[in-house]
Every structure is written in C-alpha cells, then in structure tokens.
Design goal:
Layout lengths: L5 E3 L6 H18 L6 H15 L14 H6 L3 H18 L1 H14 L3 E3 L1 H7 L13 H4 L23 H9 L5 E8 L2 E8 L16 E7 L2 E9 L3 E5 L7 E3 L8 E4 L3 H12 L5 H16 L5 H8 L8 H19 L4 H21 L8 H16 L3 H16 L8 H11 L3 H13 L3 H12 L4 H13 L8 H10 L4 H10 L1 H8 L4 H11 L5 H14 L7 H36 L2
Parallel strand pairs: 1-2, 3-9
Antiparallel strand pairs: 3-4, 4-7, 5-6, 5-8
Amino acid sequence: WFGNLVTMQWWNDLWLNEGFAKFMEFVSVNITNPELQVEDYFLGKCFEAMEVDALSSSHPVSTQVENPAQILEMFDDVSYDKGACILNMLRDFLTPEAFKIGIIRYLRRYSYQNTRNTHLWDSLTNICQSDGLDEGRLQGDGFCSGSKAHSGASKWFMKDELNVKEIMDTWTLQEGFPLISVAVRGREVRLHQERYLRSDDPSQDSGFLWQVPLTYITSNSNTVHRFLLNTKTDVLYLPEEVEWIKFNVDMSGYYIVHYEGAGWDSLINLLQKNHTALSSNDRASLINNAFQLVSIGKLPLDKALDLSLYLQMETEIMPVTQGLGELVSLYKLMEKRDMEDVENQMKGYIVNLFRTLIDQQEWSDEGTMSQRMLRSYLLMFACVRGYQPCVQKAQQLFQRWKESDGNMSLPSDVSMAIYSIGAQTLEGWDFLFEKYRQSLITSVKGQIKSALTISPLPHKLKWIMEQSLEGDVLKTQDLPLVVIYVSKNPKGYKHAWDFLRANWHSLVKKFELGSSSIANMVIGVTNQYSTREMLLEVKAFFESLKENGAQLRCVQQAVESIEENIRWMDKNVPLLKAWLERQGRTVTGA
C-alpha cells in the first residue's frame, strides 16, 4: 500500500513509505493476532527513535537529500520509528475511526501516483466531506453519519476545525521532540514546552515549537483528557485538586514530561504504594522519562533511582525491560572505565531488584508471548551477570545438551542463556561453533552466533569478527551485528573498535558509505565510551577519513553520544556512589 500503490515523490519523504510500513506492522498484527499484544512493544520503537532524535545531529522526518550517501542515510530510526510514532500519535488524537477513513481516502485518491507530506495531511482533514472518490464509503461505515462523530473522543466536531497539516508540519519539518514541563498549583496546571536536547549548547533548542496533542489522567479520573498545546506556555484548569497527574497516557504521544515541584514525588509514591493504578505502558514511560530528564539536568539521579525501587514489585514486560535497560546502561558506561567497585555495586543492586522475578521464571516455553519474552530476557540477563542459581541451571542444561552431541531439544526461550554460559569456556565455545556450522535452522544459528560474541575469550572474539569479514564460515551480512555484540562485551569492546578502524575501507566497500550497516557499527561500537581519551581517538580517526566517512551523520551522532556520556559521568558518578552506599546500608540494616 505505502510504497507501491502510493509512492513518495522523492527520497526526502521516505518516511511516507517506511514510517507507514513500521506503523502498519503493529496495527495489522494487533488485529490478526491480538493475543500477541504487540502494541506493548510499539513503545520501545518510540524510545529508540528518541535516543537518536535527542541529539543535535538528528534530522527532520522529511528532509532534503541530494546524493546517494544522503539517501541511504535516510533509512534510519527517524524515518522508520519516529515516522511510525508520530502516525500513532495522530491516530490516537484523531481517533482510530477518523484516521482509518482518512487513510482509505489517501490510498484511493493517490493510487499509482507519487505523493508528498501535504497529500497525506489533506486526506486526513475534513474527513466527513465526500470528494467523489469515496463512493459512499465514508457515510456507510457509520462514523460520519452516526452518533460516534459527535462523541467526546472525536476531535472533528469542535467549533474550530482541526488543521492536520499545521499540526503535523511541526512534527515532520523540524527535528527533535518536545519536553513538556508540568507545574500543578491547586486546580491550575501550568504547561511549558521546549526542545528536549542532549547538548551543552543552549542556542540549538531555541525557535522550536510543536503543536502537541496532550493527554492526561489524574488520581480522580481515569478518563483520558485531551488538550492541544500549540503555544510555548499555557494553563489548563482541573475541576478539583488532585493527588497526582500523569501526562502522555500510555506514551501514545511523541514527547516526554517533567513534573515540577512535588509532581515526581507524588508519582514515585503512587508506584511504591499501588503501581497498578497506572497501565504498564504508563509505568514504562515514567521510567524512561525520569532517566532522560537526568541526562539534561532536570531531575537529580537519586530521584530516578528512587523511582526504580518500585521495580521489585513489577511483573509486566515493558516496565521490567525499560527499567533494566536504563539501569544496565549505567554500569555499561562504567565497564569502559576502571570503576570496578561501583560497577559491581550497581550490578548487585539490579540483580537484587529483580531477584524474585528471576527466581519465578521456569526453564520452559510455557506462557503467553509476553511472559515468554520476559523469561528469555530475564534469564539471559541473570546468567550473563553471574547470578549463581541461573548460571548453575544453565551449566547443567548445557552439559546435558553437549553430552547428547547437540541432539537434545532445548526450550527456545532459554537456549540463548544456556548457549551464553556454555561459550564461557574454550571447550564450550568450540563445541558451539561446530553446532553453528552444522545447524540448518536460522534462529538456532542466530542464537549461537550471539552467544559466541558474549564469551570472555579475547582471541575468539577477534577471530569471529575476522571470519565474518571474510564471509566463508560466517555470512558477511551478519558482520555488523557480530561487531556490535563484541563491542558490548567488556572483554571485547577495545577489539571491536580496533577492528572497525583497521578494516574501515573494506567495510565501506562491502556495505556502502551512508548505509545503515555502517551507521549501526559506528554508533554501536562507540556509544558507550565515556572518557576524553576515547573521544579524541574517535574524533581523530573519523576526521582522518575525510570524504570517506568524516561527513556521515552517524559519525556526528557517535561524537555527540560520547560527549554526553562524559558529561553524565562527570556529574552523576558521585551521586550514584552515594545512593548505592545508602541502599547498601538500608539492606544490611546498618
């Protein structure tokens, strides 16, 4: 539909194809297989897009491109994931019924033609006015003719007709996304928007203004209230005072929220006392937003860590994986420095936080898709972190599997954790590699390959990257993932960086300058560095490439990420140490 039946006019609007495709993946599967609950995972796509979009090197969803390398660079998280997220936000704002009618009109009106941004927005405006191509479909579906059209959820029958183009141009023609600050005083809610930007250059966030479809719930009302913020500041009035207010319900909007005054304390208190008062996506978004606000100095680190304490009661996949993601990334920064004491304290805190949930996991393939994915994620984390009950179980199962010469059937949900423990020894690594060569099952080969990169054996890590480059034993198409996985390994990150530098010209020949494969390797290998020495080394290398890489957007993103990591560590390591010390005393009762 979005790419063949209707195709974008030029590459600057690539998102009309790829953003729609990504969005429709989730919409379609949710309709055909609701039991998979894929809408839960859509949230993760928006968080990923925001990671890139928070940098000053980001680009608008719709942006000018002039040469092949720039066109290739458009195939990124902004075009795909941000494109999908702003469509989801618009669908939620217009209501799914109105959005569907507009999309049908768009596809009919522009079948076998080329489109620009504006054609989509025109199709989503005045949806209940037939234009001759609708063949009575709009009236017939009951939305425009029936009482639904005048329901409180619909935005279409307010006195001021919505200008979809005006709203959405603010999301597609400028990069970045808004940070909404909320200050509650009695019944009065003061709102302020600014660009969320991880940069120490304040000039780069001026002049940005979005039309933001805000949603919120309160301690007094589960009804989703809506408010279009189209100015820098505004005020809304609640019918009565509330204990807490939560904006961006289910994180359906592409923005993050800061609660001023006692706002965060109220929400942290709610999570501690009754976390299920908020949906799992709302809980995941609070975790995400809190740590993003730490990065720009809006929230102290200890406040975000205080919020994380409630996770010992959490059982849902999105908040658990989001919490783990935020906390693990902290010690990942420390692994690239000599900070073993704090690093180990942090690892111990995380394992203790999720210990009960980890112990509840069965080594099987039972349960719903979400339960199975959570099991796989948690047991993998616990084994790699050296949590002994997990390590011992994985060792037993690996030994039995090895004794059967790999013929014993392992539960697919836990096989990755088992392989990873097996790959810790030279004998186990060699056995796994032999099974990788023999297996004809793509999913099994993928799991074994990942486990081989988690090994602490440096010579094996170097060898597997070299073999992936040669392309005989391992496919060259797998090389970017292999290099990125090795770079995440505390025993391998230096080797991954050395490999990238030594083989840059070969990599560019194989994957093309500007390709997502090159971009993923550049960012994946460097984005956890946090020292000035590595910043200078990364900068010097890419500057030496000149037109063979220095101009790439991914290089700018890599440098920005390292600069941000340095700022984060300088400011927050003392706070983290003090907080972990306090937690240690609380646990021991000292």
